[in-house]
Amino acid sequence: MKRLTYISNFSRSLTKKDIESIGKISQTNNCRQGITGVLLSCSGIFFQILEGEEESIDSLYEKILKDDRHNRILCLKSELNISARRFPDWSMEVIVLDENNDILLQPIKILLQTLGESQAILATYTQSGVLEAIGRGINPLTLVPRYTEKIIFFADIISFTSITEKVQVTEVVDFLNQFFTICTKAIAARGGEVTKFIGDCVMAYFDGDQADNALQASLDILSDLEMLRNQAPANSPLRVLYVGIGLSKGTVLEGNIGSQTKKEYTVIGDAVNVASRIEALTRQLNRFLVFSDSVRLGLSDRWRSVRLGDFHAKGREEIVEVYSIDDLLTFQKSDFQKLKQEIRQHLELISSQTPELV
């Protein structure tokens, strides 16, 4: 048999009557499927333990994952080959803690609230692919490393060092957060996965057959950044938030990489290095978006690719064919040196208007 324990948040307001109704329906269905367990509810949180035959538990949990009454579902524990049930007499006992003032139940309320808060924190700091595995009851440490084809995305802020030297710390943090938020939303919306933030750089990947999505996500980011620049106050550093984006495609090793005590689920390989090197070429080519020939070959006919030439990527002997697309968003308004000068002048203006700290 299998025992599964999960926690989730209410996706909408549910009354005590709604929760009791869920319990009654569960009791009927679970009795038929030979499933037992308990459901606790407290402060907008569900905490449930399910036990029964593995196939029945997996089928029920799949339905729970799709249930629109649940939000941020996190599997806390998945136990296989259990020999005895803990709740043999409960097809599903429902306990609503909100209206129960029993002093002995107060620690349980606090525990559930703490678990809910920890879940939100975990979701903020954890890669979505890892969270998805946990949510499905899979221990991410057991994920087997594999070679797979990916499109690697690199985006890096232009003249970031100069920006950090001229604006205050709080503005730097806001500057980065705005950039990371735009990138994360655009990449996720197109099916990509942000794997890490490296200083002022975003690294992400898409499946190898998602060249169109990777390119569209890049254009979405450039479009959102242009809108952000235009809407920012005249004395804001956001007015000069420009980035270079590089895309490369190839076989990478995907899996848990790290030490015994610290790991990250990421991708490594030549395609990662090439994407990073290609992104650096944006300064030389006066384009905000460039990509390798391997990416171009996976694009549909909707795109008009423009060949920018052959280049020796730093640290790599083979020549890389570099392309962009015929879209105004990809063009720098002037050459890179003039863009840097524009950024520098704006930062000097901001610096002159900022009162010195005493």
TrEMBL record:
InterPro entries: A/G_cyclase, Acylphosphatase-like_dom_sf, Adenylyl/Guanylyl_Cyclase_3/4, BLUF_domain, Nucleotide_cyclase. Keywords: Cell projection, Cilium, Flagellum, Repeat. It is found in: Cell projection, Cilium, Flagellum. SUPFAM superfamilies: Acylphosphatase/BLUF domain-like (SSF54975), Nucleotide cyclase (SSF55073). The keyword Transferase does not apply. GO terms for biological process: cyclic nucleotide biosynthetic process. It holds the Pfam family Guanylate_cyc. PROSITE patterns: BLUF (PS50925), GUANYLATE_CYCLASE_2 (PS50125). Residues 1-93 form the BLUF domain. One of its GO terms (molecular function) is blue light photoreceptor activity. Residues 151-279 form the Guanylate cyclase domain. Coiled coil: none annotated. Heterotetramer of two alpha and two beta subunits. Belongs to the adenylyl cyclase class-3 family. This is Family 3 adenylate cyclase. It comes from Pseudanabaena frigida.
